[in-house]
Amino acid sequence: MAGGLGERFGVDPVYVRASLLGLSLAGGVGVFAYLLIWTLADQERPAGAAVRPPSVQRNAGTAFIVFGALLLLREAGFWLGDAVVWPVALVTLGSSVIWSRGATGDSAGWNRLASAATNAESPGRAALVRLGAGGLLVVSGLATFLVGSDTLRTTGGAVIAVAITGLGVGLILGPWMVRQAQQLAEERRERIRSQERAEVAAHLHDSVLQTLAMIQRSDSSRRMVGLARSQERELRAWLYGADDEHAADRLQPVFEDVAARIEQRYELPVELVVVGDMLVDDQVHALSSAAYEALQNAAQHSGATSVSMYVEVEPEHVTVFVRDEGKGFDPDAIPDDRRGLDESIVGRMQRHGGRATIRSDAGVGTEIELQLPREGSR
Amino acid sequence: MIRVFLVDDHRLFLSGVKSELRVGFEVVGTASDVDTAIAGIRRTRPDVVLLDVHMPGGGGRTVIEAIAKERPDTQFLALSVSDAAEDVIAIVRAGARGYVTKSISPAELTDAIRRVHDGDAVFSPRLAGFVLDAFASDAIQPVDPELDQLTTREREVLRHIARGFTYKVIGQRLHISVKTVETHVSAVLRKLQLSNRHELTRWATDRRLV
User: Fold this and answer.
1) pLDDT band at residue A49, thresholds of 50, 70 and 90?
2) pTM above 0.80?
3) What is the mean pLDDT of chain A?
4) How far apart are the first and last CA of chain A?
């Protein structure tokens, strides 16, 4: 704690500790300063450090310990006087209550209220209660100070009253402003990062992607073309890829992956076109596995130089076409060593409530159509 | 002899295409940026302009917008390594009669140029997929049904293109002539260019990746 504070202000932690200790001895103010800073400094925690979720018991325990310590200090004579210490205690406690981090460990107090207001949802009751109780504590602490203080009666009362009110507002709003500023800085860093990424993307687009395209249409060996193709695919996915959260559970990346695996393993270009999109479910997995088998069949037996895969998502069903312009075959006369067609394609589709249709003509090519009903539409 | 003008800021690619367009074509000029391209096309009056989507100074779209009105006979074929849907839709809506990727084989490229020269549209499987996707949502009532929706037949033709069939085979499978297939594709192109359907734009920006 003192180390973090010291680092932040560029002071040796030893001095911070010493001054806090001194303040504590001089009437317990240091203890409260310590607690207040602790609630604020949470965001400065280095990434990766374990965050222990605060519990009511622990907070209450801490409060009692501090209270006990204060009484001890009072008895021992290190005391600034009741009129100063108790109001400061109340104000600090109130401020801590408002700004202590919730169980979620992220937003608290005003932040949560503000986000709730923008979402047009009712704010969390806990946040409201905490804000109300904390505000009450701060105000009553300040009031106690004003009432109990002799200085108010002897010197220019108005000036001090204004100063005290300012202090109260600062205590209630201050932490919020600090966090807003931190958030703004974070957003700015994020913006700069995405701008840099866009620049890199533009540059790669103009240089590397162009070269990869050139290699693909040149007379290079099939292996070179395949390499260029898979590199282009990877680069493109990175450049234009939707953010990972979005892409992780969509249909399109699943089939892109199937196409990429075939291209890599058999050095056979796969022209993939996807129309529509949906969330990945069991049906999609069954379809993509069957499609992989169909592509593998084309790669091993058709002799074609490329394969087309067309996927269309419709409200009631999903359809996949895998087509090659290879030598074709007679579906009724498949040798026994090619059971993949029966088991992995036709059988799999039937088990999932769909169908597989195989059209093949010698010398023209083969097209395998896979169709499954969508879950929830059966 | 089809007179072709090439616009691309990658010289390697320019010289590669130039060497492929020998029989039946004449490359009347090349340009590597927007301003030179516009001046060159005005001077040489080509039949077909082959242009890159991305270029310094505004890209292929700026060239099309500058030339299309004053020279309605010039046809444009867009060519790019970018498969981002918004780029494809934008250049076709600007007036290109087709879109092919740079990995297209030389034979397919010459075929595409001839087709565009004849006034037909050139839809790669990928472009067909984009168009099907863009016109797919029927949830919202179209403003102009004539332009905002595809007919069942047009949809069927596009599906076959997306599956990788040539126009000839599509005609055989749907029992229509190649000419009729071309008519359907041109009708789709017209709808793509003229429809104000707001989903088209929204869809294209939503979908950044294929």
Assistant:
1) very low
2) no
3) 73
4) 60
Q: Please check whether residue A322 is in contact with residue A295, taking contact to mean a CB–CB distance below 8 angstroms.
A: yes
Q: What are phi and psi of A279, to 5 degrees?
A: -75, 145
With bands split at pLDDT 50, 70 and 90, how would you rate the model's confidence at A105?
Answer: very low
Q: Could you tell me which chain B residue has the CA closest to the CA of A364?
A: B169
44-103 of B, contacting A, C-beta below 8 A? 54, 81-84, 101-103
Of B105, B165, B209, the CB nearest to A217: B105
Q: Determine which of A171-185, A265-279, A324-338, B164-178 has the lowest per-residue pLDDT on average.
A: A324-338
Residue of B nearest to A247 (CA): B209
Element (H, E) at A91: helix A82-99
Mutate to test the interface with B, among A211, A232, A310 (most CBs of B within 10 A): A310
Q: How far is B53 from chain A, CA to nearest CA, in Å?
A: 11
Q: What is the pLDDT of residue B210?
A: 34
DSSP letter at B129 equals H
Q: Do the Cβ atoms of B16 and A217 come within 8 Å?
A: yes
Please count the other Cβ atoms lying within 10 Å of the Cβ belonging to residue A177.
11
- A/B interface, count of CB pairs below 8 Å: 83
Compare CB distances from B162 to A212, A216, A275 and report the shortest one's residue: A275
The predicted structure's pLDDT at residue A39: 54
pLDDT over 80 at B7, yes or no = yes
Query: To 5 degrees, how large is the angle CA A176–CA A177–CA A180?
Result: 90
A 180-219 → B contacts, CB under 8 A = 205-206, 209-214, 216-218
A298 burial level (CB within 10 Å; 0-12, 13-18, 19+): buried
User: Per-residue confidence at B137, pLDDT binned at 50, 70, 90?
Assistant: low
- Indicate the pLDDT class of residue B161, thresholds 50, 70 and 90: very high
